[in-house]
Amino acid sequence: MTDRKQQILQTAIEMIADEGYGSLTMRALARASGMTLGALQYHFRTSEEMLRALVRYIAES
Known about the structure:
single chain, mainly alpha, Arc Repressor Mutant, subunit A, 4 helices, globular
């Protein structure tokens, strides 16, 4: 996994901790990560793909 993907997933964890799971959208995650939605979708094509990666990331940590 690339460093950028790890940074995105870490931002997702922080968003969930601060604002709850309901606030985690691809658009909000892109904004919080300092990137455009298109750039985020380069790393994770769908929110489902991002959530699967997030679960794996948490399980491996």
